[in-house]
């Protein structure tokens, strides 16, 4: 096997840029503004620490020998304009100069350093995409912040300034690709990516998410099943809202029973993953109870899909994930899944197993079982 073959088959190229750390989101009540009622505020959940911890576990964990690190670059204005409006660029830039401000009136903070960080995140995604197109990498992981999947062409939203995936996908389309699938398993609906490609039959967007619905004027999309695309893009957007507490089995089953058949029909030339880890079992911003094992499985399923349709080309973008320590272990499990193997690190927080897939007891069943148990106990101890 040549060195190039080895790199392709058994490695993930991780794309990084130090400027992503300059984006300072401050502190408050989780992602909300500080409260004068509190003695101590907490850091905004979208902060450098979570990304630095991912980097640390990937550099020190057993998967490290299979990772190749590459430094990205800032996006150019013309690259950003592949997805965003000029007005949106100016809004982000002016926030950097005058901030901190909250561009969506909620948790999306922009201040000094944010512009360079957002440029680095988007540009590093373009570098990764170009490497995939040039066959310099087969599997890539863009480890950047701020995240991107809520950013719409002319709106910042949900801690996202530029849609890193949207910019990179449009870069690939401009290079001649005809069909790209974006699978988003971040805990939240990938509304920005959906919006950017809603009329486009070249890009299939699929989002698995908790059913949080719309939130505020910067997030009008609902994430409902009924949002299927528009015009030529009809049938090229799929939303898969999963119930709160869905867990590993529900995500894997949704992937197997829903995502895979739709991807098989679309036959993409490239699969892009909006890889949020905020569906993990300890995330303060999620409710879905996915474990390291669950993310590992999703990545193994994605790799298999990429091998089936795309000569193995698979590009992951870091999105959410706010449990400062556990997220990093999920990322390690994900990278091993991308390599086609199980997770070798012990789950540091697996306090309880996932519910058995066959356990379908309803609340009524539990009530009946409890009554039977009480009757048995009474007979044993009281004789009646
Ligand atoms: Zn999220």
Secondary-structure element series: HEEEHEHHEEHEHEHEEHEHEHH
Straight-line distance between termini? 76 Å
- The helix-and-strand class reads alpha/beta
Q: Report strand order across the widest sheet.
A: 4-1-7-12-11-8-9-10
In terms of DSSP E residues, the strand content is 5-15%
Query: What best-fitting shape do the alpha-carbon axes yield?
Result: globular
The main pleated sheet reads as:
8 strands, parallel
Low-confidence stretches: 1-6
Radius of gyration: 22 Å
CATH topology type: Arginase, Chain A
Oligomer: single chain
Whole-number tally of structural domains: 1
How many β strands by DSSP?
12
Work out the helicity level: 25-40%
Overall pLDDT: 94
Work out the helix count. 11
Bound molecules: zinc ion
CATH homologous superfamily, by name? Histone deacetylase domain
Tags for this model:
single chain, 384 residues, alpha/beta, Arginase, Chain A, eight-stranded parallel beta sheet, two-stranded antiparallel sheet, 11 helices, 38% helix, globular, disordered N terminus, binds zinc ion
């Amino acid at each position: 096997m040549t060195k190039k073959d080895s790199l392709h088959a058994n490695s993930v190229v991780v794309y990084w840029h130090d400027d992503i750390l300059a984006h300072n989101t401050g502190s408050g009540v989780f992602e909300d503004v500080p409260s004068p009622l509190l003695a101590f505020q907490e850091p905004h959940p979208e902060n450098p620490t979570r990304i630095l911890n991912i980097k640390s576990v990937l550099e020190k964990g057993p998967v490290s020998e299979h990772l190749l690190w590459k430094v990205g670059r800032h996006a150019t204005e013309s690259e950003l304009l592949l997805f965003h409006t000029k007005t949106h660029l100016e809004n982000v830039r002016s926030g950097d100069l005058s901030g901190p401000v909250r561009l969506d009136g909620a948790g999306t903070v922009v201040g000094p350093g944010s512009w360079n960080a957002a440029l680095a995140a988007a540009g590093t995604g373009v570098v990764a995409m170009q490497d995939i197109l040039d066959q310099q990498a087969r599997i890539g992981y863009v480890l950047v912040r701020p995240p991107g999947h809520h950013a719409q062409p002319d709106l910042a939203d949900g801690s996202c300034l530029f849609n890193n995936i949207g910019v990179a996908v449009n870069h690939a389309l401009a290079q001649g690709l005809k069909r790209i699938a974006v699978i988003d398993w971040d805990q939240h609906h990938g509304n920005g990516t959906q919006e950017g490609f809603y009329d486009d039959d070249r890009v299939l967007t699929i989002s698995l998410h908790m059913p949080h619905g719309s939130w505020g004027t910067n997030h009008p999309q609902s994430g409902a099943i009924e949002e299927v695309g528009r015009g030529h893009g009809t049938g090229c957007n799929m939303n898969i809202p999963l119930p709160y507490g869905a867990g590993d089995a529900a995500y894997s089953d949704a992937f197997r029973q829903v995502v895979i058949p739709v991807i098989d029909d679309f036959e993409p030339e490239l699969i892009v993953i909006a890889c949020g880890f905020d569906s993990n079992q300890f995330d303060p911003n999620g409710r879905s109870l996915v474990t390291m094992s669950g993310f590992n499985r999703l990545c193994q399923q994605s790799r298999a899909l990429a091998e089936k349709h795309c000569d193995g080309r698979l590009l992951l973008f870091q999105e959410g994930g706010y449990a400062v320590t556990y997220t990093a272990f999920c990322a390690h499990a994900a990278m091993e899944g991308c390599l086609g193997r199980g997770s070798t690190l012990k789950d540091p927080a697996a306090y309880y197993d996932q519910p058995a897939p066959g356990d379908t007891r309803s609340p009524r069943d539990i009530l009946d079982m409890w009554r039977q148990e009480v009757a048995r106990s009474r007979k044993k101890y009281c004789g009646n």
